[in-house]
Design brief:
single chain; 14 helices; alpha/beta; 15 strands; globular
Length: about 400
């Protein structure tokens, strides 16, 4: 048995505990939390730390495959500029460089307190490394392709990737669409048919991440159309559609659905989708949102209407690190009305709920193995971390 104590323990599912002590088994299962109130009393074999102890973070959206693009320079801002940059440099690296970057990224996530990652996969590049780490992974095998000519071939290729992952992660893998704007009508038909008949009812989709998405679906114009035309890619004509129209038509309503980014989504459309789906989660990736579109989603409005909010890092192509505390600090800096308790829940328990992992991780409760993370250099007057705060994995 082990005991860990700090100035405060944040169980997440309940209020912070001053001078709290956490008892665990040797393999990290929480036995009990001891509340000593305002007075700290020394208990035998207790390790005391200056700072606060929180559960391991749940990164609800990442692209580990793109870790080799760390430090990617964008020639122009916006989603099209980001797509252009990724496309331009994706063949500049060797297989070893790609695999080494994935391993380094996963190690960084582990070192900075992450317990689980929802990872977008287009290939099997991450599989071997994932099987040899302590992190929990939920693998979304992502389908995209705007060319109707290639729809069947692409779908079968992604299905093959999904089948490989299913052997290693039978309960933590789903076939999923990339976005409302990047999929041909034929590919959408194949995806929708698969989702209707799939037993694992969890999906993830990039949603409302740019004005270009809305323009392309509504009018068939704008930067996305220009990009497809300039690249010589055949594509279907879309008219009079919104992202929510596309999502509701193709993804069954009994799914647990993660909407990624929602940078330009309104509270009204998110509320509509929230009523439609069994469980809806909006996943914000703040550093990535600011870098690509110089904008954050309206998180205060989303919180007011009771949306399950979670946090992701996105890829190292659009973020400087996979440190979840950095993402939390960005949110707190931009939304002064939010408190650390609430945003910490987004980065832990809410993400676990979205991925159907909350029975094991996400909060410090007896019977769970959530991982324990120390945040030092904590501002106890404001009850929030600072730019000088560091994270250290305790379990």
């Amino acid at each position: 048995m082990k005991r860990f104590a700090a100035n405060y323990v944040f169980p997440v599912n309940s209020k912070p505990i001053k001078n709290g002590i956490i008892e665990t088994t040797d393999d990290g299962e929480v036995i009990r939390i001891i509340d000593l109130g305002n007075e700290f009393a020394e208990i035998h074999s207790t390790q005391f730390f200056n700072g606060v102890i929180v559960p391991g973070f749940v990164n609800a959206h990442s692209h580990l495959e793109l870790s080799y693009l760390k430090g990617l320079e964008l020639e122009k801002q916006g989603i099209v500029g980001f797509i252009d940059a990724v496309t331009k440099h994706r063949f500049d690296f060797t297989e070893k460089e790609i695999l080494d970057s994935i391993e380094a990224a996963i190690q960084q996530a582990l070192n900075t307190g992450t317990i689980a990652i929802a990872d977008i996969c287009n290939t099997t590049n991450t599989l071997t490394v994932k099987q040899n780490t302590k992190l929990i992974f939920y693998n979304f095998i992502e389908n995209f392709g705007i060319s109707p000519i290639k729809a069947s071939v692409l779908f079968n290729d992604y299905l093959a990737v999904k089948n490989v992952f299913s052997n290693a992660f039978p309960n933590n893998v789903s076939l999923t669409p990339h976005s409302p704007y990047s999929i041909s009508k034929k590919l959408w038909m194949l995806i929708a048919d698969y989702l209707r008949n799939n037993s694992n009812r969890t999906a993830s989709i990039h949603y409302g991440e740019s004005h270009a998405e809305y323009e392309f679906l509504r009018y068939g114009t704008g930067p996305l159309r220009e990009r497809y035309q300039n690249a010589g890619i055949p594509f279907d004509e879309f008219r009079n559609l919104s992202p929510s129209d596309v999502v509701i038509e193709h993804i069954p309503d009994d799914y647990s659905l993660l909407l990624i980014h929602c940078t330009f989504a309104t509270a009204q459309e998110i509320s509509l989708l929230n009523k439609h789906y069994r469980q809806l989660t909006v996943v914000t990736c703040p550093e990535s949102n600011l870098r690509i579109e110089n904008k954050l989603p309206n998180l205060l409005e989303f919180a007011k209407i009771g949306i399950n909010l979670a946090i992701g890092t996105d890829s190292l192509a659009s973020a400087t690190s996979l440190n979840m505390l950095s993402q939390i600090n960005i949110i707190l800096d931009h939304f002064q009305l939010l408190n650390f308790d609430e945003v910490l829940k987004w980065g832990t328990l809410n993400g676990a709920k979205a991925l159907n992992l909350s029975h094991t991780i996400g909060s410090i409760e007896p019977g769970k193995k959530p991982g324990l993370v120390l945040i030092s250099a904590f501002d106890f007057e404001r009850m929030r971390p600072t730019v000088h705060s560091k994270v250290k994995r305790l379990i």
